[in-house]
Amino acid sequence: MIPKARLGKRSPLGALVTSTSPGINLETGETVVTMAVAGQQATSRADGHLGLKVYFQCGRAGESSVDHLDSSPSPCGRSVSSSIDVPKRSDQRSPHEVDMNELMAAMVLSSLSCSPLLHSPAQPDLTASMECGGGELSDSGYWSVGHAHRSPAPSPPIKESDASPATPPDEGVDMELDQVLFDEPAPRKRRNSVKVAYRCLWPSCGKVLTSVVGIKRHIRTTHLCRGGEHERCSRSEEDFYYTEINQWEHPQQWSPPHSGHSSSSPASPASSPSSPPSPPPPSPPSPSSPSCATLSCSAPSSSGSFWQVQSEHSYQAPPPSQHVVSAAAATPSCRWTAPPTACHKQGLSFRVRSVSVGEQWLQHQSAPSRRIRGEAKKCRKVYGIEHRDQWCTACRWKKACQRFLD
DNA sequence: AGTGCCGGGAA
DNA sequence: TTCCCGGCACT
Question: Is the C-beta atom of A396 closer than 7 angstroms to strand C?
Answer without folding.
Answer: yes
